[in-house]
Amino acid sequence: MADALKNVIAQSLECPVCLDTFTDPKILSCSHTYCTICLDNLLECHGNDQMLRCPVCRAETQVPNQDVSKLPANLALKSLIEDMKNQYQYCTSCKSEEKPQAVVYCQDCGKYFCSTCHNTHSQWPGFITHEVLAMTEIVSGKMSVRRYRKCRKHPKEDEECFCSDCRRFACFKCVVMEHTNVGHQIIEVAVYECNHMKSIEDLKSKANKKRSCFRNTLISLMNRRSV
């Protein structure tokens, strides 16, 4: 029953256009909600007109100055999404399509594990010394997730650097000992993560744009058939 309820809640947090969890949700005049980026893509597909047609009910909403960001935000939904993120962290190790809920977080691996993956992880001799936190402790605020993983060669050191040449994370000791040759470009992990996330967001934006245009075209064809 609890899992079924979680699935229902998760589905209610999905944007009808990109089928992903809402990002910066905006409300149309018909009360339907969509991601800001999805509405931007729809507006572009419609020729950047000031009137935006809802993909679900086909009702029109006027977009102030053709700027989707000026549409009212769904604050209640944004708050619910944040609460869900804090309460329901899914396993980042599972290969199954339906991600089970995580029960622990490994500070050394930097991954969330469900009960099955946690059991497998704890049985490996090399992982016995890993610091594992219960999700209940993280959610309650008793414990906090460490930002950096510990270096395998120097367990007391954090991997705060990234070598663009070797494509590896490294601690400062490893950088001095192994990454000083010409061609080794060392950057901070925060910089690497920022650049990496930007690349992912760019790819996701392009994919969402194509998916949105495809969905919009499909809806248009269906409407023509129904006429």
From TrEMBL:
Lineage, top ranks: Eukaryota, Metazoa, Echinodermata, Eleutherozoa, Echinozoa
GO cellular component: nucleoplasm
A GO molecular function held by the record: zinc ion binding
Gene3D superfamilies found in the cross-reference section: Classic Zinc Finger, Zinc/RING finger domain, C3HC4 (zinc finger)
Domain B box-type stretches: 86-135, 146-189
Source species: Strongylocentrotus purpuratus (Purple sea urchin)
PANTHER family attached to this UniProt entry: BONUS, ISOFORM C-RELATED (PTHR25462), MEIOTIC P26, ISOFORM F (PTHR25462:SF296)
UniProt entry tagged with the keyword Secreted: no
Annotated SMART domains: RING
UniProt keyword annotations, A-Z: Metal-binding, Zinc, Zinc-finger
Name by which UniProt lists this protein: Uncharacterized protein
PROSITE patterns cross-referenced by the UniProt entry: ZF_BBOX (PS50119), ZF_RING_1 (PS00518), ZF_RING_2 (PS50089)
Residue ranges annotated for the RING-type domain, each copy included: 15-58
